[in-house]
Amino acid sequence: MAMKPPKGKPPSQRGNRHAKPARESDGLNDTRHVALHEAGHAVAAIVLEIEFSKVEIKRRLIEGGTSEGFTATRPFKRDDVYGKDEETILRHITPCFTGPVAEMRENPNARDHGAFKKDLESAQGIAAMAICELSRKENGETWISPEERNKDRLIALLEAGEKRANAFVAEHWDAIVKVRDLLLRKRELSGDEVAKVVNWS
User: In a 10 Å sphere around its CB, with 0-12 CB exposed, 13-18 middle and 19+ buried, how is residue 96 labelled?
Assistant: First the structure.
């Protein structure tokens, strides 16, 4: 199946639609884990200078299920990465992984919910938009063919992004934990509030 480029979607929209109610005890939707996940995304957005307005841990209905948390960055554009150097591309891919990586430090079940899959799909979409050529359908819609998508460089970019995310989370762990704790108290933080925490950590 061909993969469509992401349509200006924030790097995190944590949903529980892939988690079964019987597994609630596994901590898949534990508020502390949701907050840690979103804090990982939010701190990365500040440090890597990705335009970012807010982060929240509020349950709300979305298409196909519910959202447990959300990190809002500006809409992503293909021009942000297409034809750019690897450092620029990785600056956009790495934040996709920082949420799951941060959460997995305290929640080994993090891979079992939809948020992990959504973040991986976002990273894949950004990498594909950076290095793959777009095809155009008769109706004008663009898409990325399987031939373009299955490239060694694509896999290498994703592996590099995840590796950097692991190093990032280790380096900025104190700030991530402080943002998590503040999120647990306030439920929503602005980009400026997160920046203050990062700058003082």
Answer: buried
